[in-house]
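Appendix C: a fully annotated inverse folding record. The material below is reproduced so that readers can follow the format used throughout the book. The structure is listed first as tokens, followed by the designed sequence.
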């Protein structure tokens, strides 16, 4: 598990260094601050993965709830009057 974490840290840090170098072409950023931000992004990559997983799970749940509600028959006031005899009065 430690190898997976450290590998993800290395990959994320490398991507962050490359991305900051490409996006900060016109701005002056100190290499030290750029490096610290990349290391911080590399350290926090599991949090981003968990957040993305939760987002996907919530989106799938919302889609399934929406699909289930579309399949249910819609109740109308006329249905209630037609089935009034089915009700058992106490």
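Designed amino acids, in order:
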């Amino acid at each position: 598990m430690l190898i997976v974490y450290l590998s993800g840290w290395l990959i994320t840090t490398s991507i962050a260094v490359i991305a900051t170098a490409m996006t900060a072409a016109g701005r002056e950023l100190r290499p030290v601050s750029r490096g610290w931000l990349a290391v911080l992004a590399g350290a926090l990559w599991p949090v981003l993965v968990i957040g993305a997983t939760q987002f996907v799970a919530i989106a799938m749940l919302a889609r399934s709830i929406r699909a289930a509600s579309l399949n249910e028959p819609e109740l109308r006031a006329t249905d209630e009057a037609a089935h009034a005899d089915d009700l058992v009065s106490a």
